[in-house]
């Protein structure tokens, strides 16, 4: 399976199934539990709000390259 096929398959999962998969991946990588922080109720609500916004308007999403470029620009400005 290609990464794209895996991503598409993951997108077809229910939200709770995606979270279970994410937890499984983290555990498989041996990430210490202390580095994995469960979101609180407010954070979960915000994540859900953002997800629903994305589903309603997928073009509102920003690709990862833009996010990284914006972050680098912010860091550069504050150096």
Structure description:
The chain has 79 residues and is mostly helical. The protein has 2 domains: 1-37; 39-79, no CATH class. The protein contains 4 helices and no strands. The protein is extended and about 40 Å long. The model has no long low-confidence stretch (mean pLDDT 88).
Mean pLDDT: 88
Residue runs with pLDDT of under 50 for 5 or more positions: none
| Overall number of strands | 0
Question: What's the helix-strand series?
Answer: HHHH
- Name the shape in a single word: extended
Helix content: 55-70%
If helices are DSSP runs of H or I spanning 4 or more residues, what is the number of helices? 4
Structural class given helices, strands, pairing? mainly alpha
Distance between the termini: 42 Å
Q: Over all CA atoms, what is the radius of gyration?
A: 16 Å
Secondary-structure topology with pairs:
Elements: H1 3-11, H2 15-28, H3 41-56, H4 64-77
Keywords:
79 residues, mainly alpha, 2 domains, 4 helices, 67% helix, 0% strand, extended
Explain briefly what this protein structure is:
The chain is mainly α.
